[in-house]
Amino acid sequence: MADDSASEKARRPGVQALAAVLVFAGVLGVLLAQKELQGSSDPGPATCSSDDKPVSKRVSAAQLCTALNRSDLPTLLGTPREQAETAYGSESSVKDADGKETPSPEAEVSLKTYSVKLWASDDDLRVGEFSGLLGGSAESKTVLGHPAVLYSDHTIALKFNLGGGEIHSGTGGIARHLLVARDAEDGGGSFEVALWRQDDVPPDDAALVRIAERVLPTVPGWT
């Protein structure tokens, strides 16, 4: 019989490979290209946008994007001279084997050096259940009194052959994830912050923790 916990893990948007992150980054690339075409003058930091209608739940993608796209994000990342180039929120849901759909809104902000992504999950799963399911590199942590797990994943590198119209994928750089329980009792549901660099250099864990500590208390649903 398959392990139900492992099956649930595989369905979680924030604890699976970052293929979706890089596909999502393709949308951001289009937005950035449009920005470049608008002129060479600096329009200032990117503001949050979304092409999805919000669904009824505790926290929306727009709220996640607003929380993540804060004015001091470049400083928290250790790149104070940079600014947000793209900021985007997306509504989605995850369906389990019983057909139940769990909302999983997400938001992403990209700068020249870093990209940061934030997920919210409103399921019944506890963060403590994932410690043994995320590989030997997973580390149990505490973030502002909430149980958390720090772990690594790989991004997916996409290469475009403009002449032949082909897209090739391969293993990209390291992304660091911090999965944090919504409440101190770990009663179910979580937020997850992921951080990776555009140059594929391993990201700074200290920056990831700083962002989580500043951003998560501003998100609806954090207790």
Structural summary, described in words:
The protein is α+β, with helices and mostly antiparallel strands and 223 residues long. It has one domain (4-38, 47-218). Helix content is 23%, strand content 31%. The protein has helices at residues 4-11, 19-37, 61-68, 73-77, 205-215, and strands at 86-90, 93-95, 101-103, 106-110, 114-121, 139-143, 146-161, 166-181, 190-197. It has a 7-stranded antiparallel beta sheet with strand order 1-4-5-9-8-7-6, with helices on both faces. It has a two-stranded antiparallel ribbon with strand order 2-3. The longest helix is centred in the first third of the chain and has 19 residues, at 19-37. The N and C termini lie far apart (36 Å). Mean pLDDT is 77; it is low at 1-11 and 13-40.
Short synopsis of the structure:
The protein contains 5 helices and 9 strands, in the order ααααβββββββββα. By secondary structure, the protein is an alpha+beta fold. The chain starts with a helix and ends in an 8-residue tail after the last helix.
What is the element layout, followed by pairings?
Elements: H1 4-11, H2 19-37, H3 61-68, H4 73-77, E1 86-90, E2 93-95, E3 101-103, E4 106-110, E5 114-121, E6 139-143, E7 146-161, E8 166-181, E9 190-197, H5 205-215
Antiparallel strand pairs: 1-4, 2-3, 4-5, 5-9, 6-7, 7-8, 8-9
Globular, elongated, flat, extended or rod-shaped: what is the shape?
globular
Number of strands: 9
How far apart, in Å, are the first and last alpha carbons?
Answer: 36 Å
| Mean of all residue-level pLDDT scores | 77
Gyration radius, in Å: 17 Å
Percent in helix:
10-25%
Main sheet properties:
7 strands, antiparallel
SSE class: alpha+beta
**Low confidence ranges:** 1-11, 13-40
**Portion in strands:** 25-35%
Number of helices: 5
- Element-by-element helix/strand order: HHHHEEEEEEEEEH
Domain count, please report it: 1
